Structure formats: structure tokens, C-alpha cells
Amino acid sequence: MKYYPTAILLSVLLSTSVFTAAATSDQNVSPNRIQSLAQSNITVLDSNSPIQKVSTSKRIKRKHLKKFIDQFSLLYEEGDLKNFMQLFASNAETNDASDSFSIEKNYTKLFKSTEMRVIDLQGLNWNISRKSAKGKGDFLVTVLHQGGEKMKRYSGKISLEIKNNHGSLQLTKFFHAYSEE
Predict the structure, then answer these.
(1) Core vs surface per residue 142-169: b (16+ CB within 10 A) or e
(2) d(Cα 79, Cα 117) in Å, to the nearest integer?
(3) Cα–Cα distance between 18 and 12 in angstroms, integer?
(4) Where do the structural domains in the chain lie, given as residue ranges?
(5) 105-120 pLDDT tens trace
(6) Which of 25, 50, 143, 164 could tie 7 with a disulfide, CB 3.0–4.6 Å?
């Protein structure tokens, strides 16, 4: 049987919670396993897929936002800083930063200080206009710090804005309030 090396994200809906497992690029996944997972309401995403492109002449659609959020989550969980930062506009704002350089610095620190991280953006309600979408919802983040033995969970509220920037969706605002569980 042939096995495929891949970097994947498996998200399985289990009642009201989401179970996520990441396979690194040096792990092998058999076609039978992928088919079995696919039949169990599991989404398989490949981090090598291109950044979500949208024609500037078209209104942003919910399917574009879902693909963008899925890609955001995958790149965050993989710690793929280069591709993750492509999701942010150069003038993007977050709680702690007001430009992409500062945002990259913050995520570099996070990705280097954690062995594993999982983000689940839930219940996003979108207000969509022709070239932008504003979303509000909940999030759950689970991290394992370098050398740590216990995972930490954080939950809270999220507010974000995504704009169509010359055919590419990009985050322009990404704010959150959270507490440790």
C-alpha cells in the first residue's frame, strides 16, 4: 500500500466540541486512513494550498471566508510563520500591534515558545459588504509550551475584519479578549 507524506489538519466534530490533530510532514498517512477519516465528517486541509484568492470585481462570499478561516487555523497550528503572515495586510491591527512587522514579531515569539497550538474559531457571525467582511464569534486555543507537560486552554471572544486586497483576502483587524480555563 502506498503512503503519502503530508502536513494535514484533521478537524472532527464531536457533539459540541472540536477535536483537532495535526500530522507533521514526516508522518505518513495511508489512502485508506484518509478515506476513513473523510467518511467521518473530517476535513483534510493541506498547508501547501495557495492563499485564498478572490476576484476584486466580486463580493466576498461566505465560502471564501470559510476557506480563509480554515487556512488561518491550519497555518497557526503548524506555526508556518511565512505563509501565516501573508494572511495579514501590511497595516493590520491586533490587540498588541498596529502593523504587520509587529504582528510577525508577536507570532514569532508564540510559535517559538510552543511545541503545539490549536485554534478553533467558533460561531463567527459575518457582516459582509462588497470588499470586506466583519466577523464576531468565540475562540478556543490550546497550547503546549516548549518543555511543558500540561496543555493550557484559553477561550474568549474574537472580532476580525477581512478585506479583499487586490484579489487576495487579508486580515486588517484581529482583536480578542480571553481568559485561561
Answers:
(1) bbeeeeeeeeeeeeeebebbbbbbeebb
(2) 8
(3) 6
(4) 1-46, 49-180
(5) 999 999 999 999 999 9
(6) 25
In order, the DSSP letters of 103-136 are HHHHHHHHHHHEEEEEEEEEEEEEEE-SSEEEEE
Topology adopted by domain 49-180? Nuclear Transport Factor 2; Chain: A, (3.10.450)
Of 109, 107, 115, 110, the residue nearest 150 (C-alpha) = 115
Tell me the pTM.
0.72
For residue range 124-148, what is the model confidence (pLDDT) as tens digits? 999 999 889 999 999 999 999 999 9
Dihedral class, residue 166 (left if φ above 0, else alpha if ψ from -120 to 50, else beta): left
